[in-house]
Each structure stands twice: as structure tokens, then as C-alpha cells.
Amino acid sequence: MNREKILAILYEMSLVIGNEVKLQPLLNRTIQKLLYHTSFPCGLFFCGKETFQNQTNPDFPVKFHLETAIGDHMIAEQIGQSLELPPLLITGKTELITNEDLFQMLPTDIKYKAALRLVVPQTGIILLLSRTMPPDDLPLTEIFEPVMSMLAKAVLLCQRNELFIKEQAIKQSEENYKQLVQKIRAGIVVHNSDGKITICNSTAQKLLGLSEDQILGKTSIDPDWHFLREDTSIMPVDEYPANLVMSTKKPLGDYVAGIHHPGGSDTIWLLINGDPVFKSDNIIRQIIITFVDITLQKSAMAALHQLNSELETRVALRTNELEESNKELEAFAYSVSHDLRAPLRHIDGFVKILIEDSAGKLDESALHYLDVITNSARKMNSLIEDLLSFSRMGRKQIDVQTVDLNQVIAEIIQDMTPDLANRQIQWNISTLPVIEGDSALLRHALYNLIANAVKFTVTREIASIEIGALEKINEHIFFIRDNGVGFDMQLAKNLFGVFQRLHSENDFEGTGIGLANVRRIIQRHKGKVWAEAGVNKGAVFYFSLPK
Amino acid sequence: LKSLYFSEQIKTDKIEKIIAGWKQKAPQTGVLAFLPEADKENIPIIQNIFKKENIPLAGAVFPEIIINNQFKKNGIILLGFSEMPWFQFFGPFAESPEILQEQVKNLSDAAGSQIRGNVETTLFMIFDSMIPNIGTILDELYLGLADRVHYMGVNAGSETFKSIPCLFDNSSIIQNGLLALLLKNHPGAILEHGYRAPAQMISATVTHGNRIISIDWKPAFEVYQEMAKTHYNVIINKENFYQNGVHFPFGILRANGEIVVRIPVALEDDGSLFCVGEVPANSVLTLLSAPEIDIEKTIKTIAEGLQEMGGPGENKSLLTFYCAGRRHHIGKTSVEELNKLKQETNVNKIFGALSLGEIGATLKGGYPLFHNATLVCCYWND
User: What does pTM read for this prediction?
Assistant: First the structure.
């Protein structure tokens, strides 16, 4: 290796070292280059200049900080740790070490035979480890030693650079924090452990009506503060927010207090939060108090409260009037319906007598007219009966008891069974919850819904009727699903009206009172009823009952 | 259990029979295949055979393959494993150092997660030769995996240095990537070139990956021409550059006296030179010349290394990757070199491929580097 070659390698090394501005890449690239040039498989960098200087006894192992390690994965696992190593290995001048005993304390299974120790002045030590003995004639120490002082300076510059970057980051962070504290639209004051205010932002100054100079240094017990309780009584000093946090050592949340500006007459209402910040030994280091002005909200709340109160009174009055009116209307409907039955019975009865008394005297046409009159009277009677039952549903006192709907449904189906001899129906009934309600009324409602499902599936070769329930937090929802003829959802708004029918009476018999009754029963149980369907796609009737 | 099959012709029925037999003996078998560039069109056929037999396949295309100490332009080599080792494709690799670091970290994490206990393991890498920053990839890889593996590798592709898809598995063919395999219970490989360094030093002042832009602050080709004329009395011009490049490669000097060979293979109009392999900026270069290659030393070093690593070569085969540039440089002597290698190592046979760059350490367990003009060898106990 001639002088020219050594100079060339020095030049190359110095450019590698000079190319890095961060410490870790600098050390990695330098060691990689050293390994490249030596073919040694492992390179370590230890730092800690004080340790190197203070070491006096070469026989006692001393701890050295492993900054980086390349090539030996077991040693690399110790990066960032301090390793106990013999001083003879790690202190001293730049040289090739061949005493294998010195390598025994390295945390690795590899048996190294040689180490090239490169001193990085005032900074650390590089150890390049080899499993074989390098040739004697290689001037490795002479080649690398000159660049080590340059590496030392580069390490120093990188450390300073990183320190500078860290300091800049801290400064920037502090500036951001100050901006945040000043710009935030909440008052912030910070008390130290003596209770004195050390920080107050501009919002705090504005809300408290004091300048920064007037606030800083004051304590919670300063006589200038005039706090009011929420009920406008004078707040005792020990209830002041900072004092409460100080005495309880607990956070204070959504605390409402009024404050008088010095010289002002109006009260400003504040919503206050307080948090203690502890030292490690559970001693309060500082208390952070934040607050927002809720004066406007507080007066708005008072006005709202007044309005609500008036509204409630008016609603109660109107409800009462409406209930009275409904009762009168129902009584009237009941009375009318009841009174209409007598003339109908007369019509029906006198038509019968007329037919019997005029036997053989009336021609076929007259008999047909009388038959129409009889049928119409009976139909009207049926409608009146339905109307009366509907009315009764609204008037009947609700008798709340525990109702097992499983049992109710089983009974309904059992009752229907004789009439379903010619039908094929697949029943799919889930277990239903036990609820509180009027057993008779609920049975009536369910009977109607199930009867509807049976009725409107009559055209199906195999009818399918599913009964189930959905659990909600505050209510039970029940459903009866069928595969029947369904209906057009555009007509659904009429579904639950009195005498409303969505299908021809010729196709499906009935007066149209059933679903009106269902709705009335469910409404009387504070529930709702609704349906989903499609033409020829079946229907699902839902009703909810509160828990 | 390892198996080996090679043939100068690709006979699909024979291959089917061979690999079916391997699977019968070892149901978890998998195969590493080498194909010469002239037979690269057969890759889909080979893939179909392996898909049909449901046997894992990884493979690469090289300029030529080596069968029984001879370079062959046609044929196929199949290396069968009783259990297919972990393998994965990576790349294409980024030029940006930050992204490249992340990519290589993924590689080292993936490979590292497969290493179990103290099993001696070799990371065998086959790179596409068109990747310009293999040296940097190796440096980063060594930061992550360190000595948990031995490093062995070669470059695949075309000897024309035109980009071709040269790496494949059962279903895909990729280019500009890396095929990495983890060979368990494998002691690594021996690598040697035997080039000697002359005294004259120059410095590659500006480089970019595998491109030398300037030497001693002058256009690279200009300095190259001057040095060839001054030291070897050879006139190199644009016309004869490709023929002469292999005879006058660059050597990157190392402090331990060794050199890393870089063969220039392409010339740009601006006078910059493309080499097989990365040339770090400010590397100390020298110009090597034909007479300086030491074949005897090469063979001796490899044989001694193999002996130390795996004992005598009797009853063993030798997997050998022989640099295409080296063969171009020494011509027919390359076959003699292979024959000498067989004699010196006492192996049954030598098989392998002509490679476009080689990876390994010149010392056992030494720092792995990307080389040109070398032989990379390891035993294959079939």
C-alpha cells in the first residue's frame, strides 16, 4: 500500500464523513466504509469520553455506552446500553489488538481473533472485529487514524446540530403553546403551589376585567375577587375554584360561579373547570383553571325555562279541553250508534212481518226489494256493532297485568283452527317476551292481525305466517308477516282508519274496523302500529309496546 | 435431501417425470431453476409443468448455464429441495435513499422473521443485473440482518445488458427485482476473482449508481482512454469500447489491499461509463488489465475456502457462478479454469450459470460486497 493509495483512501473516507449531518447515519456510514475497506464483518462505536479519561485500573471492567453496532446481531441488540468491557480493549491508542481474552466480555457467540481499535478523539472508540487475523503488513491503523479526528469533529457537529434542532423544536413547541393559550377563547389562569397566579391569558384578563399585571401574583384568597354562587349568594372563599382544587386535590368540573368586575354592576357568569398538576410525590405543583363566559347562555336558559313553563301550562289546558271534547264526541257517537240500532231492528222486524203477512201476495220483484232492505239493515247493524266495539275500545279502562303473548297467540290459533281445515298454513312463531298490558285488548289486537294474515293469504297454496319480536332498548316490537296478497304502500295511510278497506269486499269480506281497533288498542298502550307491504308480495304488520 | 437435474435440451415430458419423482420422495419439494437466455421463451412451458404438478418454483435467466464444466447456451438446470425454502420477490427498488432504506428494511424484516434458532442460514439473492444500486442495497441489508445469515448472490439477465424479465416463479415473470431465498443448513459460498491491483490511482469524482460520470474531475471515458493508452498502450475508442471494457475493467481499491472489480459495459454520449455494479462516489479506482488476473490464486483460494467450509469435495457437486465478463476477458481459458477448479476441489461435477455480477465476501464471514469478474462457489450435496 503506497502513499498515494493511502491518501486516496483517506480522501474517500473524509468525503464519506463530511457528507452526513445526522449522528446515526454518520456513524453507520463510517463504520460501513471501514468494514468495506477491511472486510472485517463487525464494527462497534462506543462513546463516553469521561469514562475513558477517568479509567485508572486496567484490571476492572468498566461500562461503556454502545452507540451503534453493525454486523453482529447479538451485539447490535445491546445498542443504547452500557456494556462492561475490559479497559485494555477499549482504552488506549489506535492499534490492532490480537489478545483474544479481551474479546470474551463482548455479548456475542462469535469468537473474534482481532480488533482494530480506532480512537475518535474526545468522542469515543470504534472497534472493528475480525474472525481471522489480518495480514501483518496491512497498515490499517496508519490509514484510518488520520480520519478519526475528522470523525470526532463530525460527531461533535452532528451532536450540536441535533441539539440545535431539538432546541429549535422545543422553542417552536413553546411558541405554539403560548399562541394556543393566548388565542383560545377560554380564560386560562395557572396557580403555582402557593396559590399565586403565574399565567393568565388575554381571555382571562378580559373576563375578569383586570390587566395581566393586576392578575399575576394574586392568590385565590385575594379580597379583590367577588365570586357569587349560582343562586347569587356570596361565595365563601373556601369555595373559590382554585381553593377547592387545592383542598380536594381533585379536578373540578363544570363549576358555575358569578363574578363582579371591579367597578362594574353586572354579574358575569362563568363555567369553570380546574385541574391539579402533581409533582411525583402527590404534591400539587400547579393548578390550571379554565373558564368560559356563560352569562348570555344563563339568561337565555332562564328565558327558555320561563317559556317552557308557560308552554307546559298551555299544553295541559289544551289537552284537558281536547280530552273533554273527545269524551263528548265518543259519548255522542256511542249514543247515536246505540240509538240507531232500535229503528234498524224495527225495519228488520217489520220487513219480516210484511213478508210473512203478505205471503203469496207479493211478486218476485217486491220480495227481492224486501230482501235487499233486510240485508242492508243487517249490514248497517253490523257496522253499528263494529262502531260500538270501536268506541268501547276507546272507553274501556285499561287493566294492566302481566301478559304472556306466547300463550295468547297459541290460544288464538287454537280458536281459529276449526275454520282452517281446508287451508295449508306454515306457522313460524318465535318465542315472544312477557309484557305488561291489558290481556283482553292485546288479544283482540293480535286476533285481528293474525286473522288478517290468514284472510289475505287465502289465495296462496301454502300460506306462510311468521310472528316474532325485535328487542329495542326502550320497547318491544312485534311483527306478523305473511306471504299474502299484500297491498300498495301508497294506500297505507288509510290502512288504520275506521271502515277503510284496501281490497274489494267481494274478494275479502270484512267491514274495515279491525285495523282501526288494533291501532286504538296499541295507542292506548302508548305504542305504535305500522305496516310494510307490496302488491302480491305479502305484508308485515308491526306494533311496538313500551317496556 | 437435495436433487439436481440438468439437460442441454428442455424436454417437458422428462422434466415432468423428474419433478413428479422428487415430489413422490418429498411431498414438500420445491425447485430453483436456471435457464439460459436463449431458452427464456420456454419459461411459460416450465411454469405450466410446475403448476400442473403443484410444485413451488423459483427461477432465473442467465446468459448461459454451466453443465459439467461447460458453458451451454441451451438447456435447463433444476435444483430440487426436499422442502422448498422461503423465497420472495422484491423490487423494483427506488433510487431515493429514504425509500430504498424502507424497501430493504422490509426485505430484512421478511427474511429475518424466517430465521429460526441457530440454524446456519444463507441468504441467496438473484438480482436483475439492471438494478444500479445493489451495493447500497447490500449495505442496508447488512445493517438489518447482520451476521444472522451468510450472504451469497448473483446477477441474472442478458449478456447484452438489455433489460429482460429474468426472474420467475410458478405464475409470474418479473424484471428489475430481486429473488431472495433462505437456504437453511447452508454455510454460504466462496468468492474470488484474483485480479491484481496496479499502482496507478484515480478517483471517481462523480458517480450515480452504476454510472461513472467523471474521474479526477474529467469526463470518465476521457480518463479511461488516457490510462489505457498510458499504462497498457491500448487505444480505446467508442467503436471498440465494448470489446475492450472487459479487458480493462476498473478496480475499486480497498484498504486491505483487495480490489472490487467493475467492468464498464456501456458508454454514454457525455462520456460517462456504465459498469456492472455500483461505484460509490469518490471511490478510489484503478484500471486493471488483462495480464493481471491470477487464475491459480483464484482456484487455490476457492478450493481452500470450500475445504474449510464443507470439507473435501469428493462425492459432491459444485454450484458455480462464473462472471460473464471474466469469461469474455479470458476466453477459452475460462473452461480450463473450470476444469482446474474441478480437479483442485475433487468434486464430481460443476454446474451453475454465467452471471452478470456476484455477491459475497472474500473472507469467510467477512463484509459482503457486490463484485464483478469473480467465481462464486458452494457445494451442492445431491
Answer: 0.65
